[in-house]
Each structure stands twice: as C-alpha cells, then as structure tokens.
Amino acid sequence: MAHRIAVIPGDGIGKEVMPEGVRTLEAAAKCFNIELEFEYFDFASCDYFIEHGQMLPDDWFETLKGFDAIFYGAVGWPETVPDHISLWGSLLQFRRRFDQYVNLRPCRLLPGIKSPLADRQPGDIDFYVVRENTEGEYSSVGGKMFEGTEREVVIQETVMTRHGTDRVLKYAFDLAQSRPRRKLTSATKSNGIAITMPWWDERVAAMGQHYPEVTVDQFHIDILTAHFVMHPDWFDVVVASNLFGDILSDLGPACTGTIGVAPSANINPEGTFPSLFEPVHGSAPDIAGRGVANPIGQIWSGAMLLEHLGHQEAANAIVAAFEAVLAACDNSVLTPDIGGQGTTEILGRAIARAISDGR
Ligand code: NAI
Ligand code: MG
C-alpha cells in the first residue's frame, strides 16, 4: 500500500530545498519498490497568512491527520509576519495536536564538512539528541500579576508528568539499545532545580532497570554543554527535557558544521498521528530566492521519514548517497555554505543520481 505524505514547503528556502527532498525520496522509493504518494499544501506559510489572515485553514487537523507523515520545509518571513505568530500558528500546532512528543536530531560529522571543533574527523561525532517535545519547562501554567507596578510578579511553572517523561525516556532507551554502543546520557540539573530534576533522574534510573544492556550516565546541563564541545565522542544517545533538549539539539548539530545539513524529526512513536520531518534550519530570508540553499537538511529529513515508515534500507541509501557526494568534494556540485559554487538543484540532482547508482 502507498504511503501518503503531506508535503508542506512553507516559506523562503523551504520552497527551494523541498523539491530536492522530494526528488531524492522518489529516487529511493523507485530503487526499493516503495510506493509514495505526495500531496502538496500551501498552508503553514506566511504567504497563506497574508491571503487568509491565519497560518492554517480551520480544518487542518482533519485534513492532515490521516497522512502517514508530514514532510515540512521551513516557516517564517519576519518582514511580513512576526515569528511568534508564524511559528505558533503552524509548527507548534502540529507538534502539540499530533502529540509528536519526541524531537529527534542526529548529530553526525559528515565527510567533506569542516567541524568548528578542531581536529574532529567523521566518526568522532555521531550521536542523537532526544528532546521531550510537549511539556516540561515549556508550559502554559503560570501568570502575571500587578503588571506595570512595583509589585509586578511573573510565574511560569515546569510541568513534568510520569506519563510524559516515561514515554520519551522509553523512546531514548529503545534507540540506545538499537545502536552498537548502547549508551545513554541524561541531561539533568538536579543540584539547582531541586524538585523536578531529581525526579527526572529517578525516572531515568527506573526506566534503565528495563535495559540492562544500556550504559547510563548523566551530567548537569551546564557541564554537559561544555562536554558537547570538548568531548563530542563521548555521546551516543542524549535524552533531555524540553528546554535542555532545545539547547542541546542546536548545539549538537552546530558542532558538526553547517546548519544546512542538519535534519530533525518530530515523532509520535505510536503512529496515532502523523510524524513530521523537517530540516533544523529556518527559511533563511538572507539567501532565499537565489537557489543556493543546501538541500541536505531536507534530504536527510526525508531519510528519517523513510526510516520511520519502516524502510531502513532505503533510508540508509539516501544517507550513503549524500555522504558519497560530499566525500567527492566536487566544488561545482556543493553549495556555497560548504565551500562550493553549486546550486540547490545541482546538489539535489547529484544526490538523487548517487542513490540510483548505489543500487
Ligand atoms: P535560519 O536557519 O533561517 O538561518 C540562519 C543562518 O543560516 C542564515 O545565515 C542562513 O542563510 C543560513 N542557512 C540556513 N539554512 C541554510 C541552508 N539550507 N543552506 C545554507 N545556509 C543556510 O534561521 P533565522 O535566520 O534565525 O530565521 C529565519 C526565519 O526562519 C525566521 O522567520 C525564523 O522564525 C524561521 N525559523 C523556522 C524554523 C522552522 O521552520 N523549523 C527553524 C528556525 C527558524
Ligand atoms: Mg531551537
């Protein structure tokens, strides 16, 4: 049966990298006899907002909920729509209503890409950040009193539930269990945040009981960020609450070079709702319209999409293809962010060709 994919290019370079994401998915699908059916949507973009006064149509939930996955570009055009409106009106609605409680980001140093960390080679950095994506520090519990007076007070509560914490920990432990190193690192701050974080540590220890083969360690978030930079080779799977995960999942990919290659997945592991796959980068207004954005973040997100749908081999083929193209270091093919003079389309086509050649 065909997998139904909702394609939402969004804004700016989202519209430029998406065709390459779809091109490479189609190439992989053809090689591995996978049936993919793409349906395109123009909502969740600032152009849609300008025409309709809202980011999404009223029936977006009904429209999208039956899809097997959502393939997203990027949202945001601050010149016309403020960022908090475009983001809250689109992506954050998807994450919440579709209960995409795992935010997954691979951090891997690729061949041909220079890490900002000195002397790091491909193989030295290869880990995942698993971020809790629905609760924690990003809660709507709290409020403001005596606004504008001397007595002004603001409170925002962290909300951690056993349900919400255990399910993301289970995902992270399963992932660690499936990898050769079988190592899990938990981000904590139980010295300073003395109620929720010691409890988080307890839940990690309790979940760890079910995974005797997984080695577990933990670091306070402050020193953990330092270790990401000093010792990225220590990590395999790193699990974190919403806020800590937000920080780590930007820092991790930053340690591996350009933001243009980093992918991410917002996953509803049970498949009750579609999961969403998107590059880490935004709409990049500074380079939009020139056709020079790096499409690898979008393409790698497509590989994560296929993996999520159970097509591991096809996903591996996409990753192998862009690694091969990067390793070849042909400057007429690579985009300017990684030192070349190529375009989004030239690089996308080269990767699609490498997928077909690899078979
Ligand atoms: P950004 O990721 O769009 O750009 C940051 C810098 O990285 C820019 O200099 C850009 O040219 C460069 N860059 C980004 N992607 C690239 C690629 N594929 N190839 C080459 N260079 C690339 O972040 P920024 O500028 O903070 O935000 C711009 C807009 O994107 C805002 O409206 C923001 O809200 C939105 N945004 C959306 C995200 C999403 O859709 N998930 C994530 C981050 C930002
Ligand atoms: Mg972030």
UniProtKB/TrEMBL annotation:
Pfam families attached to this UniProt entry: Iso_dh
PANTHER family: D-MALATE DEHYDROGENASE [DECARBOXYLATING] (PTHR43275:SF1)
Enzyme class per UniProt: oxidoreductase
Cofactor(s) required for function per UniProt: Mg(2+); Mn(2+)
Gene3D superfamilies, alphabetized: Isopropylmalate Dehydrogenase (3.40.718.10)
Native source organism of the sequence: Halopseudomonas bauzanensis
Keywords on record: Manganese, Metal-binding, NAD, Oxidoreductase
Record EC number: 1.1.1.83
GO molecular function: D-malate dehydrogenase (decarboxylating) (NAD+) activity; magnesium ion binding; NAD binding
Name this polypeptide is given: D-malate dehydrogenase (decarboxylating)
